[in-house]
Amino acid sequence: MTAKARISDVARRARVSVGTVSHVLTGSANVSAARRERVLKAIETLGYVPNFHAQGLRRALSRVVGICFPHVSTSYLNTLAETFEEIASRDGYGVMHVFSRHDSTTELDRIKELIRYRVDGLILMPSSTPRAALDFACRKAVPLVIVDRPTEDTRFDQIIIDNRKAMREVARELIERGHDRIVFVCLSRSRLVSQHRIAGLEAARRNAGKRIELEVIEFQSDEAFLRDELTRALRGAHPRTAIVVSNSHQASVVLGFLRDLAVSCPRDVSMVAFDDPEWSRLVTPRLSVVRQPAAAMAQAAWDLLMLRVNDAGDPIRTIALEPAIELRESVADFRREGARPAPPADGAGHDAPSTRTTPPDGLASVAGSRARRTSGRPPRAG
Fold it and tell me: 3-state DSSP call for residue 99?
């Protein structure tokens, strides 16, 4: 290769981050002798010629990156935030954390604050309606990478989880173990993450070759509504045999409801959670999880952001990472046990939700008027 080589090519060949290559070129941070030697050798081999004129136009760098998350109250988000800090520190950057609380107006205000502090780039886990914040960052020409929650905006790099595939595989594993009545608990169906997971459920049903009942409970942060709907789903004439929840906070809430309702897991209902909190192995039974690759996601997002900060000129990319599925004791195998759960003996509960709709994808959806009330608590991740 000649002068057409890019800084990302150098980073890849030297097995370092783009930020490390930049440090070697500018002397802006200490780099170990071994890394420096690899970078210089890669530059020589590839014939890379840095665009110092373009770098000069951007030389007023703050060496600070802004990170906007909705919150960090789940194990996964907390790990993701900590990993970004570790990577930034390694590459000689500081970080500024702000939180949108799932509110698009707050999100825009926080992005404006970060840009006023002249951050070099932004990492955003967007709200359900992030258009205003994304438009503002675009107008200000601030590099931005979207993480975890996919959007239909093609102006920015995105690092996401392949939620369709993950949910399809979870549902397939449950169906193979004899589960034919599955409920998915999510904060909001409007989020693409939830839509992708629902699409994965539907795909697993189509591929099952037998009748599978699927239901979505969308509870909009109203935990009282969620409790009522779980009571109906688990104590009706045909109780659900498995619950899949969207994150570790929801898992803790649902497990508390199961205890209060005297519903045994996994004897009466099995459970799987997206996220792998530290306590998942401490509860009895151990919680089955979809472990999201927080470290790999943070590194990939950081590398893409550094490409933009350093004017690498690479095309916009969306990278989908695959999580790991670990089914533990919270999932029963009816094939082996030869038994199906029956409604708890202490009552039939609610036979039907207050309102029910059947969306185009064919999954029953529970989202009655109570679901649109908030419980007064900060919203949680979907």
Answer: strand
In sequence order, which residues have a C-beta less than 8 Å from that of residue 37 and are 6 or more positions away? Answer: none
Closest by CA position to 302, among listed 17, 10, 71, 14 = 17
The stretches of the chain forming alpha helices (DSSP H) are 7-14, 18-26, 33-46, 52-57, 75-90, 104-116, 131-139, 163-176, 192-208, 223-235, 248-260, 294-309, 334-337
For 38-71, the pLDDT digits (tens) are 988 888 888 776 654 455 444 467 889 999 999 8
Angle among Cα 365, 218, 73 to the nearest 5 degrees reads 160
Tell me the H-state helices in 261-357.
294-309, 334-337
CA torsion through residues 10, 301, 23, 313, sign: positive
Q: Which residues are CB-neighbours of 204 under 8 A, at least 6 positions away?
A: 167, 168, 171, 172, 175, 212
Closest residue by Cα to residue 364 from 162, 183, 226: 183
Contact 226, 370 (CB under 8 A): no
Query: By the 8 A CB rule, do 97 and 69 touch?
Result: yes
CA distance 178 to 176: 5
> What pTM did the predictor assign?
0.73
pLDDT in tens, 278-308: 999 999 999 999 999 999 999 999 999 999 9
Provide the residue type at 64 as one letter. Answer: V
At 145-169, the pLDDT tens digits run 999 999 999 999 999 999 999 999 9
User: Position of tokens 């200490």?
Assistant: 30
Instruction: State the average pLDDT for the chain.
Output: 85
What is the assigned CATH class of domain 163-291+325-372?
A: alpha beta
For the segment(s) 7-57, the CATH number from 1.10.260.40, 3.20.20.140, 3.40.910.10, 2.102.10.10 is 1.10.260.40
* Residues 209, 29: Cα–Cα separation, whole Å: 59
Q: Where are the domains of the chain?
A: 7-57, 64-161+294-321, 163-291+325-372
